[in-house]
Amino acid sequence: MTLVLDMLTTAAILYGVAAGLxxxxxxxKIINFAHGAFLTVGGYAALLVTHLGWNPWWSLPVAFAIxxxxxxxxxxxxxxxxxxxPLDAILATWGLAIVIGQCITLVFDRGVQFVxxxxxxxxxxxxxxxxxxxxxxxxxxxxxxxxxxxxMNGSRLGLVTRAVIMxxxxxxxxxxxxxxxxxxxxxxxxxxxxxxxxLITPLSSVDPNMGVPWLVNAFMIVxxxxxxxxxxxxxxxxxxxxxxxxxxxxxxxxxxLTIVVLAAVILRVRPEGFARG
Amino acid sequence: xxELTSNAPTAASGSRSRRLALPAGLALAGLALxxxxxxxxxxxxxxxxxxAFLYAAVAITVDILWGFTGILTFGQSAFFxxxxxxxxxxxxHAGFGPGLALIAFGIAIVGxxxxxxLVGWFAFHPGASPLYGSVITLVLPIVVSQLLYSGGNFxxxxxxxxxxxxxxxxxxxxxxxAGVFLIATTAGAWLFLRSDAGRILEAIRDNEQRCEYLGIxxxxxxxxxxxxxxxxxxxxxxxxACVQMxxxxxxxxxxxxxxxxxWVALGGRGTLIGPLIGTLLLDTSTSYLSGSxxxxxxxxxxxxxxxxIVALPQGLLPALASVVRRAWRRDAPxxxxxxxxxxxxxxxxRPLVGLASAGRLALSVEDVHKRFxxxxxxxxxxxxxxxxxxxxxxxPNGAGKTTLMRCIADGAERSSGTVRLNDxxxxxxxxxxxxxxxxxxxxxxxxxxxxxxxxxxxxxARTRLERPSLWRxxxxxxxxxxxxxxxxxxxxxxQLHVASRDLSHGMKQALELAMVLALEPSxxxxxxxxxxxxxxxxxxxxxxxxxxxxxxxxCVLLVxxxxxxxxxxxxxxxxxxxxxxxxxxxxxxxxxxxxxREVYAGASAPGAHG
Amino acid sequence: MRTSNRLFATMLAALxxxxxxxxxxxxxxxxxxxxxxxxxxxxxxxxxxxxxQATQLAxxxxxxxGGILGRxxxxxxxxxxxxxxxxxxAYDSLLFQKKVDAVISMETSAARNAALPIVxxxxxxxxxxxxYEGRSCNRNMFINAWVPEQQVASVVDYFGSKLNTKxxxxxxxxxxxxxxxxxxxxxxILAKGQKVVGEEYLxxxxxxWTAIVSKLKASGADALISSxxxxxxxxxxxxxxxxxxxxxxxxxxxxxxxxxxxMGSDGKDVYTAGSYYTSIDTPRNxxxxxxxxxxxxxxxxxxxxxxxxxYEAVWAYKLAADKAGSLDTDKxxxxxGEVSFNGPRGAIKMDKQHxxxxxxYLGQVQADGSVKILETFEGVDPGAQCPNLK
Lengths: 277, 610, 390
Known about the structure:
The complex is a heterotrimer of chains A (277), B (610) and C (390). With 277 residues, chain A is mainly α. Chain A is 74% helix and 3% strand. In chain A, a hairpin with a 2-residue loop joins strand 1 and strand 2. In chain A, helix 1 crosses helix 9 and helix 9 packs across helix 10 (229-249). Chain A is globular. Chain A starts with a helix and ends in an 8-residue tail after the last helix. The longest helix of chain B is centred in the N-terminal third of the chain and has 32 residues, at 9-40. Chain B has helices at 9-40, 43-68, 76-93, 98-123, 130-149, 152-155, 171-194, 196-206, 208-212, 218-244, 254-267, 273-292, 294-311, 316-328, 355-358, 401-409, 431-437, 454-461, 481-490, 505-518, 535-551, 563-569, 587-591, 594-601; strands at residues 4-5, 161-162, 246-247, 343-346, 363-372, 375-385, 390-394, 416-421, 424-425, 439-442, 476-479, 523-527, 555-559, 572-577, 580-585. Chain B is an alpha/beta fold and 610 residues long. Chain C is α/β, with parallel strands linked by helices. Chain C has 12 helices and 14 strands. Chain C has a 5-stranded parallel β-sheet with strand order 2-1-3-4-5, sandwiched between helices. In chain C, strands 7-6-8-9 form a 4-stranded parallel β-sheet, with helices on both faces. In chain C, strands 10-13-14 form a 3-stranded antiparallel β-sheet, covered by helices on one side. In chain C, helix 2 (48-64) links the parallel strand 1 and strand 2. Chain C is elongated and about 95 Å long. Chain C starts with a helix and ends in a 10-residue tail after the last strand. The mean pLDDT of chain C is 90. Chains in contact: A-B, A-C, B-C. The A-B interface holds A 78, 81-82, 86-88, 90-92, 94-99, 101-103, 105-106, 110, 212, 216, 219-220, 223, 251, 253-254, 256-257, 260-261, 263-264, 267-268, 271, 277 and B 72, 122, 125, 127, 129-132, 134-136, 138-139, 142-143, 146-147, 149-150, 254-255, 258, 261-262, 265, 294-296, 298-299, 301-303, 305-306, 309-311, 313, 373.
C-alpha cells in the first residue's frame, strides 16, 4: 500500500512540476529551460515566508505570484526573438536559468537551506501511516488540474489560448492579441513552476541548483505528452510509477534515471508519445 | 565534351599553397609556444591551461557537430567522462603499467565509438526530428553520470575515483602533451572541415532534406561524425584523468555539457578558432575569478550567453572581430572569403549496368494509394513511363500531384501500391535509397544550399557517385554532360564561386536542376520547374528538358501549371483530379479534351472513375 | 637651481629612502597563509559558516598572541562544492594561486580524496579536521577528528543493551564516507550477534529518500543507523522519516549539533556520538564558547563536531611551527605528530599514525537542537589507521 501511495504522490508531484512547462510548450511551441529556475524561485519564496515568520501556507500563493512576475519580465525582455527558433530557445532559456540562479545566490547565498512544512507528521491512511504532507500533494495537484482545465475550457482566456495553439496566424487575423496571450501563458507557466517549487521544498531543501533534476524530468515528460493536459496526467502516472518501482526494487539512483530513459525509448518507438492519434 | 575552366592552373596551385601557409604557420607557432610556455608561465596558470586545452579539444568537437553540422548536442561531456573513467577504473582496480595504460586507452576509444553508435542510432534514426536528436544528446550525459553514481564502490559514486597511479610526468610535460593534442585536433578538424567532405556537413546543416534527395545517407553521416567526435572527446577525458588523477561524475554530466555549448556559442559557432579561443579564455578566467567574484562572474557569463543566443548568433568573438575589422579598414568592403579555384570537367558517362539496364520501363506506378488519416489523397494511380518520354502531370491545385511525386521519390510515403524504378521495387526505401535506384527529384521551391557556392553545391551533389576527399580540396570537378549543359546554358558556369543564397531565383532553379542531373538519374522528377521564371528562362529550361529526353537516356516526369509550356515540350500528359487519373494520353488528346476543360474550370468531378 | 638647494634636495631624498627601507623592513616578513577548503555550496554548506568562524577565531587569537614565528596569519577560504570536482579547483587555487603555507580543511571524503594528490604534489602540510571513515593515509596529512573505531561502538552498544534492538537498517550517502562507515557498522553489529536487515544508499546530493523510507518501514527493523554526508542530507532524511511516521530508535553517525538545530523539532530523540558537544562541562570549553560569543555575537553559529576540530587544528599548526622553528614542510610534519594542544575537546595529540586519541560522547538530540550527553568515553584509541606511517 505504501508503494501505491508512493506512486500516486510521485505522479502528483511530477504533474505539478510539469504542468507549467506543458502550457508554455503547447501555446508557444518552445521549451522553456528556465522552468527549473522558476521552480527554484518558488522554493526560495517559501524560504522567504519562513524567514518572515508567516504561516507556511502562504508560501504557495506567494510563490505563484513571484514566479508569475518573473515569468512576465522574462517574456517581455527575452523571449520574443526566440519563438521561431526552438532549439535556440532551449539554449537561451538555459542561460536565463543560470542568470536567475546567480541572482538568487546573490540574495540568499549559495548554501542549502530548509523551510518549514505547512503540515507535519504522518496520518493513518488506508492501513499504513504515510506522510500527511505528501498525501496532501495529491488533492493539490488535482485542484491545479481542475483549475487549468476550467480555465482552458470554460473561460474566455482559455478559448483564446486554444485558438492561438491551433492556428496563431488565423487568431491574430481575427483580432486576438496574441502578444498578450503569450505573456499570460508564459507568466502562468512560470507561476505554476513557482507553485510547484514551494510545494516540494518542505519535503527536502532549497539550494540554488534544486531545479535542474526536476527540469530534466519535467522536460522528458512533456516531450512524451504532446500538448494535452490529460496525456500529461497519464504520462506522469506511468513514468512516475515506473520511477518508484525501480527505486524500490533496484536502487534509487537508477530510479532517478527511469523517467528519462523510458521517455527516450517511448519517443523512439512512438514519436507522438502518449498523445492521442 | 568541352572543358570549362575558370582560372589557369598555375595561379590556382600558387594561391592554394598561399592559403595553406597561414594555418600551417599558426600551427608551428603554437607548437613552438608549447615548448617554451611551461617554463615561463606560473604553475597555477600552467595547471589551469592543461585543463583548458583538453576542454578546448572537446569544444572543437561540439563546434563540428553543432556549428558546422547543425546538431545541437549536450552530450560531448558524456564521452569526455567516459574516457576519464575508463582510465580511472582500470588504474584503480587493475593497477598501472604500460600494458594496462594501453588497454585503458583502447577501452576509452573503442567504448566511446560504440556508445556514439548507440546514441546515434537513437538520435539520428530516419524520421527523427532535430529536437528529438537534441533530446537524446541531453539524455546521454544524464544517463552516464547517473550510472556512475549508481556504481557504488566500483565507480566511487559521489566520491569519484582518486589516488590511482598514473604516468609519472612533470606538469610541464603534461602541458606539452595537452597542447600538442589540442593543436593536432584543431589541425585535423580544420583540414577536414575545409575539405570537400566538410562541405557535406554544411549542406546537412543548411538543408537536410536536399541532402537526402541527393542520395546522401544523412543518418549515417551524422552517426559517423558522432563516433569520431566521441572518440576525440574520450581521448581528451583519458588524458584529463591521467594528469589530474581524480575523476568525478560531474565531468560526465549535463552541466558540463551545457558549459561546452556556452563556450562554443560565445566563441563563435562554426568558426573552429572561435570556440578554441573562447574556451581557453573563459575557462582560464573562471579559474581565476571564481574565487573572488564567484557569483558575479557566472552571472555575467550567463547573461552574455543569453545575449549571444538571442541577438548575436554568430558569437561574441566574431562580433568583436567584425567591429574591429570595420574600424580598421573603413574603406575596404567586406569581401567573401576567396574560394578555391575550380575547374569543371566532364565525367565519363557511367555505363548503365545493374539498375538502369534491368528494365525497359523507367518508372512504373501500380495501384498507389495515399491516405492522411481518413482523407484519401491518391486513389488507384496506375501508369508507366519509358525512357526518353517526357511526361507532364497536370491538374488543379489539390489534385495530388506533389504527393504523387513524393510517393515516387520516397518509399515510405505511399499507403499502398507498388512503385518500380527501373523495374526495381522501391518498397519502403528512404529517399537516399531511391536516388540509388535512379530517382532524382527537383523540388517546387528552389531547394538549394544557401551557404555553399555553386561549385561546392555541385560537388556535394556528386557525393554519391564520387566520394569527396576527407582532407583535400579537389580543384577538378567532373560532372555529367547533362549537368554541364544546363550550367553552360544558364550561365552558372560563370558563377561558380557565388554563394547560392546570392543567386537570382531563376539561377537557383537552374542550380537545383543541375544538382539533380549530377546524380545521373534515370527518372527525373521535376515539380513546377518554371515557377517564378521569366519567359526567356522558361524557354531555356524547356529546350534543356527536351534536349535531355532526346539525347540522354532518362525519362522526365514533370508537374506543371503552365499549360503552354506543357504543350510545347511533353510527349505525354496525365491529368490528375482529386487524387485520380482522369486522362492519360498524348498532347493532342489531352488538349482537345472536354474533360480537362471541365476539370480546370471547376465543374463537378466525374463520378465513379477508378 | 642653486647648488646648495640641489644638495639639500638630494640629502633629503636619501634620508627618505633610508627611512623608507627601514620602514619596509619593519613591516617585514610576509604573512603566513592558511588555506581552508570547505563546502560553501552543496551538502556541507549547512555547517560551513560555523567552520569558517571557528577557523577565524583561532587565527585571531594567534595573531593577538604574536602570530606564527612573529608573522601575521591570514586565512584564505575556498569553496570545494562539497565534492571532488569542486575540491580540485579549490586546492589548485589555494596551493598554486594563493600559495598557502598549509591547508587545514573540514570537508567531505570525496573532496579530501580529490585534494590529496594535489597536496602531495604541492608538498604542504594538510590537517584534515572532519570525522571520516578511516584509513586515509598520506605523508602530508594529519587528522584530529574521529574514525569509526572511536564512535560506532558506543551507539550500537547503547542500542543493543539499553534499547534492546536486535535488527538494524542502515542508510547512507553513496561515497567513501557513507560506504566506509556502514561497512564498519555492519561488521560490528554482526560481531555482536545482531542482524542487519537492509542497507541503502543515495548519492551525496540526493534529497528524495521516499523509496528508502518505504523500504525501511517494510523491513520491520528495530533500529535505524544512518551515515550520510554532513549537513543537508541529514536534515532531509530526518524530515522525511518523521513525516512518514518513523519512530524507531534512530542513530545518526554523522550529525553535528549545528545541523541538528536545522532539523527543528524533527531532530528530537535522534541518538548520536561525537567528540564535541557544546554541553561538555570543562573550563576550557566554557572559555572557548565565551570567546566565540564575544567574537561573533549574534552571528555566531553553534560550534560543533565539525567546526571545533578546525579551531584546534589551526592552533596545533602554530604549535608545530613554533616547535619546528620554521614553516619547512618536513619539519612541521614531524612536529605535528609531537605537539599537544589543549582545546575545547581536551588535550589532543595527533600521534597515533597521524590520527589522535579522543574523548568521545554518546548523546541524544533535544527539542531545541542541542545534544544531551548520555555517556562519556575518555581517550578512545583510533586503532591502526595507517600502519605504514610512523
